[in-house]
Amino acid sequence: MVENNLIHETSPYLLQHANNPVEWYGWNDNSLKKAKDENKPIFLSIGYSSCHWCHVMAHESFENEDVAKFMNENFINIKVDREERPDIDDIYQKVCQIATGQGGWPLSIFLTPDQKPFYAGTYFPVLDSYGRPGFGSICRQLSQAWKEKPKDIESSAERFLGALNKAEAIQISALVEIEQEIIKFVTEAMREQEVARTKASEKLAVATLKLEAAKDEAEAVVARGQATADVIGYENKADAAGWKRAVEAFDGNGDEYAQFVLYQKLASAYRQIMVNTADSPIMRMFESVNEDADRSNLGGPQARSHSDDAVNRVSSSVAQD
After folding, report:
1. What is the pLDDT at residue 305?
2. Strands ordered across the beta sheet of 42-47
């Protein structure tokens, strides 16, 4: 079995074609120089080892003795593994997409000796079919055109390059626009985030003020309720006393909200005491004293002090009775 130059390659895909009758070369300086020295166009075939249609085209065309003989006489045939040289594949995929509107593998590109593309496609059947030229016919027509009208081929190659450069410029412009849009989006998102953070801070500040006010109100109720319970000697003070101990345990620990919740529960317990004793003579007397305190605009921690005075006054009245 005859071996070609791919026998010296390391790529599994290229080694699969090392026994083709086509005189394949790898993409290297020697093969490119050979094309220039012999003034032969290059047939570039790009594929990969698991590509189904790559294997189909190889079996139909590259293992065909007649097709291989014509290729060897008229072209410098170069095989490239797209997984080994994605840079080459990327360049000529763009050429194929510009020329045909699509790309894929196997990628079949015909180049001038100085690597300018002038004909592109993907899979070609070996014979003409359905009004489309087969690979054998394409090779014959392009070889004849290169020999008889090389200037036309060069012009076609230049148009290919011009279209490729234009496409690259459009792509770069599009990428710049996309990048600008991303920057704009991120900037706006950061601005919105800052606005949201500011609003959240403002809401937190308002909530903190409301919490402090509610806590002061709860403390005032606690002070009055404790004074009431102490004055009338209310027997069932266990709930209120329990909540009072919980509040005292939280003093100084910095958890304002937890302390506020406990104050609310303590205040609720004392309110229940005042509801249960609302009709007692002592309670009515105590309420009249607290009304004087309310008119004095005392609240919060000051309410505790004023309630102590109220307790003393009511206690004295009870003692006199």
Report:
1. 45
2. 24-25, 76-81, 42-47, 107-111, 117-121
Enter the pTM of the model. 0.54
Q: Which domain holds residue 43?
A: 5-148
Give CA torsion, residues 192, 198, 201, 203, to 10 deg.
-80
Same domain, 124 and 12: yes
Query: What CATH code is carried by the domain that includes residue 47?
Result: 3.40.30.10
Query: Of 104, 127, 148, which closes a domain?
Result: 148
Q: pLDDT digit string (tens) for 111-123?
A: 999 999 999 999 9
Report the domain count for the chain.
2
Do 89 and 96 meet the contact criterion of CB atoms below 8 Å apart?
A: no
115 and 17 within one domain: yes
Question: Domain end: 128, 148, 168, which one?
Answer: 148
- 76 touches 31 (CB < 8 A): yes
Q: What is the token pair recorded at 228?
A: 């009431």
CA distance 146 to 41: 8
Q: Per-residue pLDDT tens for 59-112?
A: 999 999 999 999 999 999 999 999 999 999 998 998 888 888 889 999 999 999
Task: Quote the Cα angle for 23-29-32, to 5°.
Answer: 55
Residues 280 and 229: their CA atoms lie apart, in Å, by: 12
In whole angstroms, give the CA distance from residue 216 to residue 303.
9
Alpha-helical segments (H) within the chain? 12-16, 29-38, 52-57, 65-74, 86-100, 135-148, 150-232, 238-250, 256-276, 281-295, 301-320
Q: Which residues contact 169 (CB under 8 A, 6 or more apart)?
A: none
